């Protein structure tokens, strides 16, 4: 596994090449992580697609956890359909 480099945003202004010295670079501002720079080889589209897929998977997992914490994972399909019908009825006015 490669080393992750942390770089202050101020350093990038004077030396932008610092971003591609490692495969992964975390950009910080005031000591807090703000962005991730990942080196890509050739296929930009597949790299972006993979990144977006992981981002979507994490969002779904977060929704599942919140749902479970609120007890919404125990709602029946009939209750869900009822809420959907009610919401769709309100929007059609």
Strand proportion: 15-25%
Say how many strands there are.
Answer: 3
Overall shape: it is elongated
Number of helices: 3
Helix/strand/pairing category: alpha+beta
Mean pLDDT score, rounded? 89
Major sheet characteristics: 3 strands, mixed
- Low-confidence parts lasting 5 or more residues at pLDDT below 50? none
Rg, alpha carbons: 21 Å
Helix content: 40-55%
Order of helices and strands: EHEEHH
Strand order of the largest sheet: 1-2-3
Terminal-residue CA separation: 57 Å
How many individual domains?
2
Protein name: Antitoxin
Organism: Thermosipho africanus (strain TCF52B)
Features:
93 residues, alpha+beta, 2 domains, three-stranded mixed beta sheet, 3 strands, elongated
Report on this structure:
The chain has a three-stranded mixed beta sheet with strand order 1-2-3. It is elongated and about 60 Å long. The model has no long low-confidence stretch (mean pLDDT 89). Strand 1, helix 1 (9-14) and strand 2 form a beta-alpha-beta unit. With 93 residues, the chain is of the alpha+beta class. It has helices spanning 9-14, 44-69, 77-91, and strands at 4-8, 24-29, 32-38. The chain has two domains: 1-39, no CATH class; 42-93.
């Amino acid at each position: 596994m490669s080393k992750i480099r942390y770089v202050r945003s101020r350093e990038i202004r004077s030396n932008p090449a610092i971003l591609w010295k490692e495969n992964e670079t975390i950009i910080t501002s005031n000591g807090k992580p703000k962005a991730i720079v990942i080196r890509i080889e050739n296929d930009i589209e597949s790299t972006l697609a993979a990144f977006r897929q992981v981002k979507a998977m994490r969002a779904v997992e977060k929704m599942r956890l919140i749902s479970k914490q609120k007890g919404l994972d125990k709602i029946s399909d009939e209750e869900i359909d009822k809420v959907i019908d009610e919401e769709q009825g309100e929007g059609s006015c």
